[in-house]
Each structure stands twice: as structure tokens, then as C-alpha cells.
């Protein structure tokens, strides 16, 4: 159905509530080569990255649109020599700064400079509880030891530390060790993050998917510890999608809480949105973040509930899970317009289990490292 | 609550956790605790509790409860029960630490 008065209809809509945070992927460059990297398979070249002045303007626009926090991410954001300058600018205009990092390029002196610039929080990824496994997954020798050293320096300096532990077939059995390690490091929070299968991870799914038995053991271990961990460390944990019966509220709902800016300046509703064919993405050179947030075609495409097919449309949970993840619907059901097949009400749900069990059984599968 | 994680008590001294700050967002007209990758919007009561009971300048939680009891002219036992529950919740969510 077409609207007789599209222009009028557009301007009469209420503006959406402002985003909570803007994720700035300063670069796709990274010394690590994790096979589940969330960056797109086609990486932006260093020469295509936005320059310092443009990132500062984008920070101004993030404050203008009403975002409260900025996540400096990548790639590895510490490869950017202007990171301190960007953090200082964010602080100056009242944005709260998070650094999402592999930590292998950080040292005490740079952490001190970043703290002086106003950085509040450092999130460090760990690939395993043990150096051998961690360095193999990251494809970076000595990385694990370096991460632990930097994590301790973060806490010693009084900055908030989050440990992001990514779980898959090769380390999921050590979830208790990972939690112990995060507590030993003095982290205030741990994200127990089971691999999400987009981009690189989707290509490597057969080499990463844990078995049902592994999953159940991990889930039981985490749940058994949650009461003891309350008040000691904040635990962010969700059941991994491929073993779940209901979809997660991806990004807190499409274009409801986050904006993502890629190294070359494309503005996305989520970091994997570029996998969806036929989407039209604007860049920071086209319009302001406020304009793009309000009515950019990629943002309005799946915002709210009007786009939803059945069974979402008549579902009581539609404003809780917002229809799940669009990129996952594309990857598993062949269409980003579909109900997320992770939902047991989706007609494609049974196929998720078939794919999952097939990949979980492919024990000889080897991953392909992230690379250029 | 389970036995392993004690409730906040009146003799505890609380401060905001690393990376947590009290902010007023003028655009939204709300007070909030800004924290790593998240935030908590405070209603009037929660704001009063945080101001009275959290921070280096507060002797202990008991002193904060005394202040709130006087300010709100309410029975102390009721104020104490509500305040300790709220502070325990804030501690468990990582916004304040002992």
C-alpha cells in the first residue's frame, strides 16, 4: 500500500527518542586476527579512514543528537594516534567515553594520557583463560599476557574495567576459569559473550559452534554462580542465539538506542547492517547524525513495529525483542524482513537447529583468520 | 538474597564505582548514574538516597539514613529498610561499591 501523502506523513511523525550511544569504529586495522571478528568481511583500508577533524565533528553531532556515551571501537582503536585527542574532545562536549580494545597496543603511559583526557571505562577482550588457547585464537603471540598486564593497570589507575570473554567450541569449557580471571583482575563487569554468527564468524561457524552438551554445561555453570557473584562483579550473560527459543532484543531494537559510524564514515543502525543487501546507508559527509537518526532510510527501515511480519505483528513480545536481529534473519531465513528464526514461533526455527547441529559436529573444521 | 552476598548495612561506607558518575541530562530533564556502557535514570527518591548515602563525605550509611529521616519526616525504621534495599540493589548492579 502506498501512502497518498508521503511527505506530509513523514513530517507529521513524532521524532524518535535520541540514541543512548554512538559506536565509533575509528579503524578496521587490528593486530589480532580473531576468526569471529565483528568487522565486515570487506574491511575499510587505513587510507579511507576519517581524519581527526571529521571525527571531532562527528562527536559534536553525537552530542547534538542527544547521545550520552561514545564507544571508541574498531578494529583496534589504539592504532589511531589521535585517540587521546578524540577522547579529550568527547569529554569537553560532555560525552562519556568507553574504550573497546584488545589492549595489546596499550601501556601504562598511554592509559594515563587517556585517563587525563577523560576516559572513564576500558573494555578488554579475552580470547581464553589460558595464554596458549587465547594467542592461537587471536593469532597474536604474547597477546594474552599483555592483556592481563594492561587490565591490571586499568584497575590500578582507578578506571572501570570490563572483561569481554568471547566463548566458542574451543574455550567454552573454561567459562569458570574466565570468570575467576576477570575477578582476579578486578573487573567490575564481565560480558560472557557467546560468538554471534555474522561476518567473519558466520564464515567460520563450523569451526566455532559449541555442542549442545558444552552449551548446557556452560549455562548451568554460569547460572549456579550468579548468586555468589552478585555484588562482586556485574555479569552480562545471554543464552547464545542458536540454542535459544526466543530472539534477543538486538541493539535494544533497530535504531532505538545506538548509531554506528564505520571507519570511512558510513552511518549504520548496527555494525553488521552492511551485510543486508539493498540497504541505503548515508555517510557523515551526506547529512548530520541528527538528520540520519530521524529519517535516514536505513534507520527507519526496521525501526519500531510497523515493518514486522507475522508472527511478530500479533506477538505480545514485539516491543521487548523488537523482532530479534535483522542480520540473523537474513543469514538464516534468507531475508532481513523475516522474523528472526531464533524465535521458536518462526517457520524457519527448525532449520536453525539443523545448521547448528551440523556445524557443532564438524569437529575437524578449521577457521580462517580475519585478514585483509 | 543469598547468604554469600550480604545486604548493605548501616555501618558500610559507599562510593560510586569506578567509571560511575552522577549527571543531570538537561535535554531529557533527568538525573542519572552514568556508568560503563549503560546508565540508570534516578527518580526523585533514588537521587535523594544517592546524595545522602554515597560519597567520601558521607560518614556511613547510617548518617545518610538519619539525614533522610529528618528531611522526609518519616519513621526511621521504614526509611532504613527502603534505603538499604535500594543501596543493595545499586551495589549488585555495579553502580556503588563498599
Structure description:
The complex is a heterodimer of chains A (372) and B (98). Chain A has helices spanning 6-12, 52-65, 83-92, 108-116, 131-138, 143-156, 175-185, 199-203, 205-208, 212-229, 289-295, 297-301, 318-321, 326-333, 349-360, and strands at 21-25, 69-73, 96-101, 121-126, 160-167, 189-194, 234-237, 258-261, 267-268. Chain A has 372 residues and is an alpha/beta fold. Chain A has a nine-stranded mixed beta sheet, with helices on one face. The longest helix of chain A is centred in the middle third of the chain and has 18 residues, at 212-229. Chain B has a three-stranded antiparallel beta sheet. Chain B has a two-stranded antiparallel sheet with strand order 1-5. Chain B is globular and about 35 Å long. In chain B, helix 2 packs across helix 3. By secondary structure, chain B is α+β, with helices and mostly antiparallel strands. Chain B contains three helices and five strands, in the order E-E-E-E-H-H-H-E. The interface between A and B is medium-sized, with 27 and 24 residues.
Characteristics:
heterodimer, A: alpha/beta, disordered N terminus, B: three-stranded antiparallel β-sheet
Amino acid at each position: 500500500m502506498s501512502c497518498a501523502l508521503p511527505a506530509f506523513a513523514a513530517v507529521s511523525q513524532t521524532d524518535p527518542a535520541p540514541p543512548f550511544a554512538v559506536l565509533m569504529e575509528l579503524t578496521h586495522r587490528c593486530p589480532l586476527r580473531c576468526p569471529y571478528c565483528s568487522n565486515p568481511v570487506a574491511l575499510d583500508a587505513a587510507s579511507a579512514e576519517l581524519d581527526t577533524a571529521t571525527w571531532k565533528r562527528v562527536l559534536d553531532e553525537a552530542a547534538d543528537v542527544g547521545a550520552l556515551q561514545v564507544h571508541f571501537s574498531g578494529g583496534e582503536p589504539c592504532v589511531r594516534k589521535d585517540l587521546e585527542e578524540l577522547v579529550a574532545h568527547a569529554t569537553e562536549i560532555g560525552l562519556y567515553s568507553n574504550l573497546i580494545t584488545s589492549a595489546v597496543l596499550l601501556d601504562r603511559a598511554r592509559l594515563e594520557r587517556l585517563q587525563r583526557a577523560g576516559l572513564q571505562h576500558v573494555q578488554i577482550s579475552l580470547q581464553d583463560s589460558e595464554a596458549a588457547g587465547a594467542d592461537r585464537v587471536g593469532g597474536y603471540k604474547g597477546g594474552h599476557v599483555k592483556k592481563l598486564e594492561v587490565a591490571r593497570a586499568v584497575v590500578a589507575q582507578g578506571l572501570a574495567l570490563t572483561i569481554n570473554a568471547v566463548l566458542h567450541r574451543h574455550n567454552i569449557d573454561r567459562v569458570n576459569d574466565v570468570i575467576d580471571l576477570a575477578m582476579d583482575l578486578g573487573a567490575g563487569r564481565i560480558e560472557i559473550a557467546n560468538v554471534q554468527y555474522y561476518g567473519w564468524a558466520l564464515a567460520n561457524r563450523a569451526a566455532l559452534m559449541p555442542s549442545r552438551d558444552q552449551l548446557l554445561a556452560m549455562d548451568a555453570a554460569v547460572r549456579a554462580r550468579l548468586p555468589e557473584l552478585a555484588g562482586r562483579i556485574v555479569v552480562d550473560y545471554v543464552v547464545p542465539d542458536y540454542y535459544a527459543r526466543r530472539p534477543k532484543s538486538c541493539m535494544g531494537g533497530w535504531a532505538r538506542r545506538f548509531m554506528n559510524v564505520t571507519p570511512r564514515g558510513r552511518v549504520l543502525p548496527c555494525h553488521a547492517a552492511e551485510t543486508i543487501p539493498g540497504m541505503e546507508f548515508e555517510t557523515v559527509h551526506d547529512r548530520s547524525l541528527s538528520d540520519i537518526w530521524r529519517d535516514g532510510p536505513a534507520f527507519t527501515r526496521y525501526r519500531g513495529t510497523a515493518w514486522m511480519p507475522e508472527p511478530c505483528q500479533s506477538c505480545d513480545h514485539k516491543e521487548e525483542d523488537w523482532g530479534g536481529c535483522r542480520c540473523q534473519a537474513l543469514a538464516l531465513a534468507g531475508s532481513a524482513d523475516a522474523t528472526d528464526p531464533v524465535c521458536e514461533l518462526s517457520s524457519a526455527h527448525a532449520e536453525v537447529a539443523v545448521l547448528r547441529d551440523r556445524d557443532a559436529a564438524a569437529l575437524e573444521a578449521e577457521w580462517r583468520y580475519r585478514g585483509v | 538474597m543469598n547468604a554469600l552476598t550480604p545486604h548493605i548495612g548501616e555501618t558500610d561506607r559507599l562510593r560510586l564505582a569506578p567509571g560511575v558518575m552522577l549527571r543531570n541530562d538537561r535535554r531529557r530533564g533527568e538525573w542519572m548514574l552514568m556508568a560503563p556502557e549503560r546508565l540508570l535514570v534516578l527518580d526523585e527518591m533514588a537521587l535523594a538516597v544517592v546524595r545522602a548515602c554515597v560519597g567520601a563525605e558521607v560518614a556511613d550509611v547510617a548518617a545518610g539514613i538519619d539525614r533522610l529521616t529528618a528531611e522526609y519526616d518519616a519513621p526511621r525504621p521504614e526509611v532504613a529498610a527502603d534505603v538499604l534495599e535500594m543501596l543493595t540493589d545499586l551495589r549488585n548492579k555495579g553502580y556503588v561499591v563498599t
